[in-house]
Amino acid sequence: MKDPIEAIQADALACIAAAADPRALDDARVAVLGKKGTLTEVSAGMRDVPKDDKAAVGALLNTARNAITAALEEKQLALQNIADQQALEGIDLTLPARALPHGSLHPLTLLRHQAISILRRMGFALAEGPEIEDEFHCFDALNTPQDHPARNEKDTFYFASGKLLRTHTSSVQVRTMESQVPPVRIIAPGSAYRRDEIDATHLSVFNQLEGLYIDSDVSLGDLKGTLEYFFHELFGPATEVRFRPHFFPFTEPSFEIDVKLHAKGQAPRWIEVAGCGMVDPAVFDAISASRKDGAYDPNKVTGFAFGMGLDRLAMIRWGIKDIRLLIENDVRFLKQFA
Predict the structure, then answer these.
(1) 211 and 270 inside one domain
(2) Beta strand 241-248 with 205-215: parallel, antiparallel or unpaired?
(3) What's the half-sphere exposure (Cβ side, CA atoms, 13 Å) at 273?
(4) How confident is the model at residue 193 (pLDDT cuts 50, 70, 90)?
(5) Are the beta carbons of 187 and 127 closer than 8 angstroms?
(6) Rounded CA gap, 204 and 17, in Å?
(7) Are the beta carbons of 231 and 273 closer than 8 angstroms?
(8) Do residue 136 and residue 175 come from a single domain?
(9) Given pLDDT bands bounded at 50, 70 and 90, which one contains residue 77?
(10) Looking at the structure, do residues 283 and 157 belong to the same domain, yes or no?
(11) What is the DSSP string of 179-197?
């Protein structure tokens, strides 16, 4: 069987070498190594080979099969290289590549991340709470009287069950104090809801970031230093910050915070950015009654709280004149932050 095997090998190698495309190469493979291929049929005749010759014939068959398989692989690689070269013909490889479109984070997300990063460096931990609240955590525990406008159905979203959509993230501060003993130093970013008419400066849902620090000896100086540092980090070290006396039910004394806005083409002007104050002892009394212990005895602990609208900060940061741009998903607007 030596001569037929050598002849099959020689013919197969010649056909493989002559194959001009993948189809011809596959035909050559099937003709030799297929189920009815010439080498396959010769291999089937091994059962008729005398026992003394089986080893030699088997080795010859293996040599032929290996040589043919190697030739097939080499030819396939050569044909692929030819196809690749033909595909590149006419292409100028020196031309600049097409720019790939890419996105970015929403401006509110960018500002939220930066604000959280600044406060985390100052030792504040993140806290969160439910957006569907009850009146105790949203109003009562924060010393908000029954006749306060915020408790009116015209200002707050109420459910038939008596639950409501939180009007501020201060409710997270209440829940944190219920579950933790002083010292407490937390920030609570999240959504808040109010029945505001939607216009260039108001939305019915907006983003807040509130903070709370309680310990045995927290002072007004701590509050002032914390927030001045925060706004200098957010808007730049030259930013002018001022505190104006104000009233909030849950802090005493209370302040509103302004920064001086320097808009191009306009005279500098003060603009409100946050509210703050020392935690009212009445809040500590409400928490103590809820906890049924003296962990928040107003004679033993003091603290400060602050809150700011992230939407408003974003508008100041990037000179956005209409808050509705932050929710309309207009690509022409959002691509400025990419």
Answers:
(1) yes
(2) unpaired
(3) 26
(4) very high
(5) yes
(6) 76
(7) yes
(8) yes
(9) very high
(10) yes
(11) H-PSPEEEEEEEEEE--PP
Omega before residue 182 within 30° of 0, cis: no
Q: Dihedral sign, CA of 165, 168, 169, 173?
A: negative
Q: How far is CA 221 from the centre of its chain?
A: 36
Give the pairing of strands 205-215 and 184-193: antiparallel
Structural domain of 263: 107-337
- Among 252, 255, 291, CA closest to 274: 255
Residues 176, 69: one domain? no
Residue 223's alpha-carbon distances to 24, 115, 174, 252, 319, in angstroms, are: 83, 16, 19, 12, 27
Indicate the residue type of 216: S
* Residues 131 and 75 occupy one common structural domain: no
Report the alpha-carbon distance of residue 338 to residue 331 in Å, rounded: 10
- 229 Cβ neighbours under 8 A, 6+ residues apart: 118, 122
In this predicted model, what pLDDT tens digit does every residue of 225-278 receive, in sequence order? 999 999 999 999 989 999 999 999 999 999 999 998 876 677 888 999 999 999
The closest alpha carbon to 303, from 230, 198, 222, 224, belongs to 222
Check: CB of residue 119 under 8 Å from CB of residue 188. no
Residue 9 domain flag: yes
Tokens of 22: 């993948």
67 and 182 together in one domain:
no
3-state per-residue secondary structure call for 79-118? HHHHHHHHHHCCCCCCCCCCCCCCCCCCHHHHHHHHHHHH
DSSP per residue, 11-56: HHHHHHHH--SHHHHHHHHHHHHSTT-HHHHHHHGGGGS-GGGHHH
* Whether residue 138 sits in one domain with residue 174: yes
**Structural tokens at position 277:** 């104050």
CA dist 65 and 72 (Å) reads 11
Same domain, 224 and 330: yes
Q: What is the mean pLDDT of the chain?
A: 89
State the DSSP string of 146-183.
TT-GGGSTTTS-B-TTS-EE-SSTHHHHHHHHHH-PSP
